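Before the break, one more example. Copy the sequence into your notebook; we will annotate it together after we see the structure.
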Amino acid sequence: MATLVSFHAHPDDECIACGGVMRKAFEEGHRVVLVVATRGENGEVQEGFLTAGEELWERRVVETHAAAEILGAQRVEFLGYVDSGMIGEPENDVPGSFWTASVEEAAEKLAAILREENAEVLTIYDDNGGYGHPDHIQVHRVGKRAAELAGTPRVYQNTMNRDHMQRGFEAAAAAGLVSEVEMPDPSENFGKPESEITAAVDVSAYLGHKRKAMRAHASQISESSFFLAMPDEAFAYTFGTEWFIREGQGPGITETDLMAGL
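Here is what the structure looks like once it is written out:
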């Protein structure tokens, strides 16, 4: 058995991006470790959701531990950086934000965990952070460098399959379903073309855990959100496969299991 470390920018990213592969690895007997760069201080929260005197980051830490338990993560670590907000926002440049952090310094923090765990597999994000979020781009940079420092052999860049999503939108539009749920608009900054993706993991068996973990992040993912309001069939299409790029693999899909052979 081996250890999978899944590295993410904010609380809730883990269940959306890699919830399936985390639960799959756990059920197959592997050790799963979740590392989060920030505590999501700049997330949005509905008025009255938090208790008197409670900070959003405090609630999001609790939510992360709850979601991690659902997904099978045996260890949760926060690197201690501050949420940088969306690209172009003033929060990007706040001292202590993840976006302004030294890549080398942050990578050494993550590498220390990789060494402690003797991790064989690390998940990060693609070079655009999936959709251009500064903290997600920083996860890519920091994660790649940390793997180099720690000698972690397998690094998988989580991404979204742009072509798969476009086919789904077209099918939903043809069926007259798009108006039922507010869906994101695929664009050139959304995920990667199918031709660049090298790993596709079928996680349909773990969608119940993935959706339950999303619900654990109630401060950010409401029942009316895109993630939870869509019908089961659409949810399965959207989240039933998790997509990755591994340098040196391909062209095309050459892997269907991040933990194969371990």
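The domain at 3-245 is CATH 3.40.50.10320 (Rossmann fold). The chain has eight helices and seven strands. Try to locate both features in your own notes.
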